[in-house]
């Protein structure tokens, strides 16, 4: 029987399959290619006729994907949808997901009403911390400047104190004196309805006693001497005026022709212990008219102010009384609708020569008269109201200052009116404190060592157990201090007196 056409190719194919199986196709990574082979078969209808029958060989499905190697050329153009999808967990992120949008959408601004207050405060501090820091620094510097000003204004003048030789020990530092002595009692006579004496702890010395009731006042132990009042001098009855004032009807007057408001005139007169003129009788009212006639003046300010449209509301400056004794208002006055201050209008045709009317204290400008009490002729630097005042520019303790004053027939100063208090401040043109000649067991109780009445008190600052008193040169205010502290004293005596 003749061999079929193409039989050799068929056998070759069978041998190739057997060889692939034996050589472990999975390890050789070989992939069978799809190809067509032809087999020579006999025509069943015609045994003498034969033809080549195509045989298609396909891939072996048993081979793994990894073992098949590179795909055949005819599969390279197949669509990617035939590929199997990878599991989700191995899927690579898309490029579009990795890249952030170039211009992300802007978030809407937060509503300020819903923003917490703490966040707003913190953001404000972070934004403006430089300005806040500068503001706090400025406040700190301002506080420091105010403190320094107050400290130096109220600083007491430094001085050295002399301690009596009877003291056991003594330490002097600046204006403070510390001593250790055996205290003894000394009495200070005072004026009241009954005779009263006050016992003050001082250094060993002679003790003066009285048989009447006494009030004991104990101060800090200090080295002192006996505080006895100076001898009462005999005064000269001849009255005079000083410092450019003119004696007229038992008044010392100074005319100021330069017009000024009543408030300004009040300040100018009071700086030297004077006041605007005070009129207490018809005779004084006529004498003031005559004085103005000589000066060529007709209208001046006087030291009277009214708070209502009634005479009972009118008072003379510096507590010098009211109008119970005399007044001479024009008809329809006082009338504070024109002002609270009062002026004097000279009219020689009137019986009393002058009448009073109301004016505006801060607007109307008039001439004015300053008045001081008359004094007695004496050779002293400061002569006021029949007394001589001596200024000692050296620091003394309370008892040493009294000793120094007694050597010139004087006592430490006592003050009995606001005008006198202003006169004493006019004696100094520096800042500091001067020593007063009194003790203050309480804020409302001031006793003078010269025995004069307790009719005026300007004690603004009282400290318990600190019974001596200082006066501020500038303000005229008094304060209680330790008697061992040092300050400049002012001595006072009757004018014309001789020891």
UniProtKB/TrEMBL annotation:
Taking the record's annotation, the residue ranges forming a coiled coil are none
TM ranges are 134-155
Query: Which segments constitute the C-type lectin domain?
Result: 248-362, 384-492
Q: Does the keyword Phosphoprotein apply?
A: no
Q: Where is this region: Disordered?
A: 1-115
> CDD domains in the record, alphabetically?
CLECT
Q: Per its UniProt record, what Pfam families does this chain match?
A: Lectin_C
Domain of life per record: Eukaryota
Tell whether Transmembrane helix is among the UniProt keywords. yes
SUPFAM superfamilies, A to Z = C-type lectin-like (SSF56436)
Q: Which UniProt keywords apply?
A: Disulfide bond, Membrane, Transmembrane, Transmembrane helix
Compositionally biased spans, kind Polar residues: 1-11
Q: Where is the composition biased (Basic and acidic residues)?
A: 13-32, 63-80, 87-96
Q: What is this protein called?
A: C-type lectin domain-containing protein
Organism of this sequence = Caenorhabditis remanei
């Amino acid at each position: 029987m003749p061999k079929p056409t193409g039989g050799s190719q068929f056998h070759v194919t069978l041998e190739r399959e057997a060889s692939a199986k034996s050589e472990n196709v999975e390890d050789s990574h070989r992939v069978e290619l799809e190809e067509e082979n032809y087999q020579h078969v006999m025509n069943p209808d015609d045994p003498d006729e034969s033809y080549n029958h195509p045989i298609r060989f396909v891939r072996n499905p048993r081979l793994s994907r990894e073992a098949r190697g590179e795909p055949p050329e005819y599969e390279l153009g197949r669509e990617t949808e035939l590929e199997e999808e990878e599991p989700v967990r191995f899927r690579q992120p898309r490029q579009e997901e990795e890249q952030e949008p170039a211009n992300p959408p802007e978030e809407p601004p937060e509503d300020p009403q819903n923003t917490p207050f703490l966040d707003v405060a913190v953001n404000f501090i972070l934004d403006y911390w430089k300005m806040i820091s500068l503001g706090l620094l400025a406040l700190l510097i301002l506080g420091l400047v105010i403190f320094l000003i107050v400290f130096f204004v109220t600083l007491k003048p430094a001085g050295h104190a002399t301690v009596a030789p009877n003291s056991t020990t003594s330490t002097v530092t600046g204006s403070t004196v510390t001593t250790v002595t055996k205290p003894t009692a000394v009495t200070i006579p005072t004026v009241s309805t009954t005779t009263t004496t006050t016992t003050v702890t001082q250094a060993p010395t002679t003790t003066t006693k009285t048989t009447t009731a006494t009030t004991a006042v104990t101060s800090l132990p200090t080295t002192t001497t006996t505080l006895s009042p100076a001898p009462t001098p005999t005064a000269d009855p001849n009255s005079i005026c000083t410092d450019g004032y003119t004696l007229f009807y038992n008044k010392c007057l100074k005319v100021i022709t330069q017009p000024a408001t009543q408030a300004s005139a009040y300040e100018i007169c009071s700086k030297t212990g004077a006041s605007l003129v005070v009129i207490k009788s018809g005779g004084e009212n006529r004498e003031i008219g005559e004085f103005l006639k000589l000066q060529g003046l007709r209208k001046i300010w006087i030291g009277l102010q009214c708070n209502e449209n009634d005479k009972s509301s009118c008072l003379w400056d510096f507590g010098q009384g009211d109008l119970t004794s005399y007044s001479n208002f024009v008809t329809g006055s006082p009338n504070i609708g024109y002002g609270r201050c009062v002026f004097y209008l000279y009219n020689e045709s009137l019986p009393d020569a002058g009448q009073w009317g109301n004016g505006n204290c801060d607007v109307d400008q008039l001439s004015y008269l300053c008045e001081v009490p008359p004094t007695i002729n004496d050779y002293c630097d400061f002569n006021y109201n029949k007394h001589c005042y001596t200024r000692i520019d050296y620091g003394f303790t309370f008892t040493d200052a009294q000793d120094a004053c007694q050597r010139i027939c004087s006592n430490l100063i006592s003050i009995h009116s606001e005008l006198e208090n202003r006169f004493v401040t006019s004696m100094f043109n520096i800042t500091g404190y001067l020593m007063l000649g009194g003790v203050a067991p309480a804020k409302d109780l001031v006793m003078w060592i010269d025995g004069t009445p307790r009719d005026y008190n300007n004690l603004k600052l009282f400290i318990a157990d600190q019974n001596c008193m200082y006066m501020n040169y500038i303000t005229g205010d008094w304060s209680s201090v330790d008697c061992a502290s040092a300050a400049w004293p002012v001595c006072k005596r009757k004018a014309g007196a001789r020891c």
